[in-house]
């Protein structure tokens, strides 16, 4: 509201500090979120977020045309559900249509955002951008990393961080596709899946990828990275994927049960409860959850009727 009260002046100031190269990022507001897991969020003032939108609108197309098609995080016409559809389609084609027994690498990069090397990120950006004035501003944003040690980390919460995170791991994407010649590879930010009918080949690929990440990007795989049989379900982007259906994860059900109890005891207000339920159902409806959602809606109706008495 404060920004809008003097919108033209603020936009003019934003344009000026970018044109003359004097833009300095503001102070972060640091807080935690706990769903779907605990994360530290670092939020800039609203003026800075406008600046970041202006920058991303300008530079994103430069990188976008170089990104791998099956990289789905924080990109237009991509996202969680498209990533999930791709994995489901591959599993159906390989296991149902072709009748193969499929295995998967379920890869997860350990503490990704806080581990990004500034030197490597800057070098990767310079492969595509040569404008010195723009690079100075981008360097300033990268180096303004709040609570992280100097030289590493990009804050979760910045629009530029979402783009930089994709730029950084594009190096992995290109290596997996063009050097390792992997056909069934899909990535959503720091999670990736590789499919094959040969578990020995997957073990070989995983060892190569682990060494590449360490050598080229100074990243480590999370210890929970594993090779599994696809018939047991592949946990990816919030769903458990099987060859002919997909389920929601158990923790999603637990969080919904916890929300219902919190509403029943008065810990959360009706307005927040309704918004949260709508969001959760929106996610669940992309899995095979018709009966579960129907029964939960009945429970909610009964709960509201009891509270209204």
TrEMBL record:
Under which name does UniProt file this protein?
Answer: Group II intron-encoded protein LtrA
One Pfam assignment: RVT_1
Q: What lineage is this protein's organism placed in?
A: Bacteria, Bacillati, Bacillota, Clostridia, Lachnospirales
